[in-house]
C-alpha cells in the first residue's frame, strides 16, 4: 500500500448477497492486513416508510400500528444487515476500524451524500444491491452513484459461478 | 492485502490526465508495495482509421499516403501514452510487473474484451477518458464497461482542485 494509509473506505451494505460479496472483496483486496490505518465505514440506507396519500381515495389509511410495524421491520433489517457485515469484517480482518452509519432515505441519495459529507477516499458497492423490485423503481444505485460522487468508486459484481459464497 | 496476492489488474490508459490520475491512484491504493505479486496490465485502445465511404460522393477519397499518416499518428499516440504510463509505474512502484497491451477498436469493446480474455481481477479506469469529442460519439466508456464486464470495476475521477497533479 502506498502513502495513503489513513483512508476512509465507505462500503454501502444492504440485504443482498452481492453487497456482502463486495464487502468481502474490499477486505481481501483493498484493505491492508499488515498495516491497516484504514477506517471502514459501513453504510445502510433505510428506505423511509412510504405513506401513499394516493391511497386515501380508496378510504384506506395506514394506521399508526401499521406504520410502527413497518418502522420496526426496517430497524430489524438494518440491525441484521449490520450484524452480518460486522461479522464479515471480523472474519476477514480483525484489525480494521469499523464504523456504522444508518440513514433514512433513497439509497442513491444517501450514499452520495454520506460519501461527500465524510470525505471518503473510496466508495465500494455491489452492482445489483437493493433487490430486484426496488431496483426496478430506483434504477441502478451503483450507476447513479458512480456518476455523481467525486471520489473513486469500486463496483463489485458477484460471480455467478460461486453463488453459494458470500 | 489479503489472500489474493497474485492479481491481474487491468488499467485502461489513454491521452487524458484523468487516465494518468487513475493509474497513479491504483498504484498508491490498490497495488501492494510490500509484497507485490500483482501484474499491472496497461491497455490502450487505438481507434481504427475511419475511411468514410460517405465522402466518396464528393469525389474525395483518402489517399494511401493520408491513411499511412493517420496510422503513424495513431502509433505515435500509443507509444507516447504507454511511455508516460510506464514512467508513472516506475516512479510509484518499481517492483510491480507491468505488461503492455495495445489493441485496435472502439475502447468500449476493447476494454471489455481484454478484461474477459485475460480474466483480470479488477478493471481500473478514469471516468472521463478518451476526450470530450470522442466521448460525445462513444458515450461514457466507463459507464459502458462498468455495466458489461464481470470483474470488479474501479472508476477513478480526477479531483478538480489539483488539476496540475497527475
List the helices and strands and how they pair.
2 copies of one chain form a homodimer.
Chain A: E1 8-12, H1 17-29, E2 39-46, H2 64-92, E3 97-104, H3 107-117, E4 122-126, H4 132-138, H5 141-148, E5 153-156
Parallel strand pairs in A: 1-2, 1-4, 2-3, 4-5
Domain UspA (chains A, B): 6-157
InterPro entries (chains A, B): Rossmann-like_a/b/a_fold, Universal_stress_UspA, UspA
Protein name (chains A, B): UspA domain-containing protein
Range of helix content of chain A:
40-55%
N-to-C SSE string of chain A, H for helix and E for strand? EHEHEHEHHE
Largest sheet of chain A: 5 strands, parallel
Detail the poorly predicted runs of chain A. none
Treating each run of at least 4 consecutive H or I residues as one helix, how many helices of chain A?
5
CATH-defined architecture of chain A: 3-Layer(aba) Sandwich
- Kindly report how far apart the N and C termini of chain A lie: 25 Å
Mean pLDDT over all positions of chain A: 82
Choose one word for the global shape of chain A: globular
Strand content of chain A: 15-25%
The largest beta-sheet of chain A arranges its strands as: 3-2-1-4-5
CATH topology of chain A: Rossmann fold
Task: Provide the number of structural domains of chain A.
Answer: 1
Overall structural class of chain A, as computed from helix and strand content, comes to: alpha/beta
Radius of gyration of chain A: 17 Å
The CATH homologous superfamily of chain A is termed HUPs
Amino acid at each position: 500500500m502506498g502513502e495513503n494509509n489513513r483512508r476512509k473506505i465507505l462500503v454501502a451494505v444492504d440485504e443482498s448477497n452481492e453487497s456482502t460479496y463486495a464487502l468481502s472483496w474490499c477486505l481481501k483486496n483493498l484493505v491492508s492486513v499488515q498495516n491497516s490505518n484504514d477506517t471502514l465505514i459501513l453504510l445502510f440506507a433505510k428506505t423511509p416508510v412510504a405513506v401513499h396519500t394516493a391511497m386515501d381515495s380508496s378510504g384506506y389509511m395506514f394506521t399508526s400500528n401499521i406504520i410502527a410495524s413497518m418502522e420496526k421491520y426496517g430497524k430489524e433489517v438494518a440491525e441484521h444487515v449490520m450484524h452480518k457485515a460486522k461479522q464479515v469484517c471480523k472474519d476477514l480482518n480483525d484489525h480494521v476500524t469499523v464504523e456504522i452509519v444508518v440513514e433514512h432515505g433513497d439509497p442513491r441519495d444517501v450514499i452520495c451524500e454520506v460519501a461527500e459529507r465524510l470525505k471518503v477516499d473510496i466508495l465500494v458497492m455491489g452492482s445489483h444491491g437493493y433487490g430486484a423490485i426496488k431496483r426496478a423503481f430506483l434504477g441502478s444505485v451503483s450507476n447513479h452513484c458512480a456518476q455523481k460522487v467525486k471520489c473513486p468508486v469500486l463496483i463489485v459484481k458477484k460471480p455467478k459461478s460461486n453463488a453459494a459464497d458470500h
